[in-house]
Amino acid sequence: MSEHVLFLTGKLAEKQLRNILEKIQPEFTYTVHQLGVKVAALMTTDMIARRLTDTFAATRIILPGRCRGDIAALSQQLNIPVERGPEELKDLPMYFGKAAHKYDLSQYSVKIFAEIVDAPNISVEAIVEKALYYRRNGADVIDIGCLPSTDFPHLEDAIRTLKQEGFTVSIDSLDDADLLKGGKAGADYMLSLHEDSLWIADEIAATPILIPKKHEDLASLNRAIAIMQAKNRAFIVDPILDPIHFGFTQSIVRYHQVRQQHPDINMMLGVGNITELTHADTVGINTLLMGICSELNINNILATEVSKHACRAIKEADVARRIMHAAKEQNTLPKHIDAGLMALHEAAPFPYAFNEIKELAVQITDPSFRIQISQEGVHIFNRDGLHSATDPFDLYPHLNVKDDGGHAFYLGVELARAEIAWQLGKRFNQDQPLHWGCATDSTEQTVDLHAFKPAGSTLKKP
């Protein structure tokens, strides 16, 4: 039996929904049914259960994306599969195409070593606190950094405590004594050894990260690799990533050369030399570096969060490694997989053109303000008219809210969000916070589409 889909909608969206479906020309047959409510987003499953008297022989029912209520109960009552469509009608084509495929982001192939660079200067309790924070953001290994000419009397205690708390730990120092202490205290990895310090690997069981004896000296690195292979010992190789303008491109070449010479060895990329030493948003830097890791099969990175602008670097690397892994597994570009790396922009920021907003505005017959954005700017409208601007201050004289402080405050917040979204090229949905990908922690609980959103603070009674 061929599929017949019933689309439920409101009065204002009915024409647009029909136009979109005509353009899509889906393989299934369909019926568009206007349920007698003006705004589709105000529809609820209880309302549908009361008003829907004919299901038009549908094999599936698609509700507006913002419809509230229990769709499982509605499906059971109607004896037909019910699902929510996208929140924006303009996303309906993707809903039946790209957006229908959900990528598995639970898998990754790159371990994140998160370095606590100031470990000698903070207490064991503070080290554990930082380790917990890094683990929450995706770190697999907690790297205990030692500082030159700085006493670290609690080094061994810190490592033992972290191990007792269930962490995988690495000790990071250029001092042989620190590496020996850390290894004997139970560290799982040690950074870093070269061909003259490989004797340390004979003293402790920790897996060493190998570096060249002298910077750019791949011959010494190859000799160290050969020694460890002869001993049948596990190791990781780090040819050293250099900062931009201090050998960055050539260091990428070195990584490529090492991978060509040693197709199967474990490698590490120290991403902090780029994220920390480049004043640019780190989400894009991490994405590109994780792409390099994916192509070269580099399965470990050393990450830091020292500079204030790099305060989300580990979380960004975690999201990036998962996206790159999914893209590689599916043999596809890292596009349309997950929005976590889209911090400042979005793939489709303006779902509605200005002429479509104008067409909607003329249908509004109530005093409630709607706010939308298009490439042309910010638009606010109700039954009294449509006003557009690129500066929200220009809209205030048209709003007539000078004697309504709560409403003025609400509109100010929403128009500010709309302006930011318009300037950056982000999605704006009225009454919802802007989304910044993995760059921020959400300050609002995830919307539960089975429940009604509580009134905002400006609508609550004092």
Question: What's a concise summary of this model?
Answer:
With 462 residues, the protein is α/β, with parallel strands linked by helices.
Tell me what the structure shows.
With 462 residues, the chain is α/β, with parallel strands linked by helices. 35% of the residues lie in helices and 15% in strands. It contains 15 helices and 15 strands. The strands form three sheets. Strands 5-6-7-8-9-10-11-12 form an eight-stranded parallel β-barrel, surrounded by five helices. The termini are far apart.
Features:
8-stranded parallel barrel, DUF6513, 35% helix, Pterin-binding_dom, 3 domains, Rossmann fold, TIM Barrel, Dihydropteroate synthase DHPS, Dihydropteroate_synth-like_sf, 4-stranded parallel sheet, alpha/beta
The CATH class of the largest domain: Alpha Beta
What gross morphology would you assign?
elongated
- Which percent range fits the helix content? 25-40%
Hey, roughly how much beta strand do the residues contain? 15-25%
- Average predicted local confidence, pLDDT: 91
Task: Briefly note the structural class of the backbone.
Answer: alpha/beta
Structural Rg: 28 Å
| Cα end-to-end separation | 57 Å
Q: pLDDT under 50 segments (min length 5)?
A: 455-459
| Number of separate structural domains | 3
Biggest sheet overview: 8 strands, parallel, barrel
The strands making up the biggest β-sheet line up spatially as 5-6-7-8-9-10-11-12
What is the third-level CATH name, the topology of the largest domain? TIM Barrel
The number of helical segments is: 15
Report the strand count: 15
CATH H-level name of the largest domain... which superfamily? Answer: Dihydropteroate synthase-like
Named CATH architecture of the largest domain: Alpha-Beta Barrel
Domain Pterin-binding: 93-335
Protein name: Dihydropteroate synthase DHPS
InterPro entries: Dihydropteroate_synth-like_sf (IPR011005), DUF6513 (IPR045406), Pterin-binding_dom (IPR000489)
Pfam family, one: DUF6513
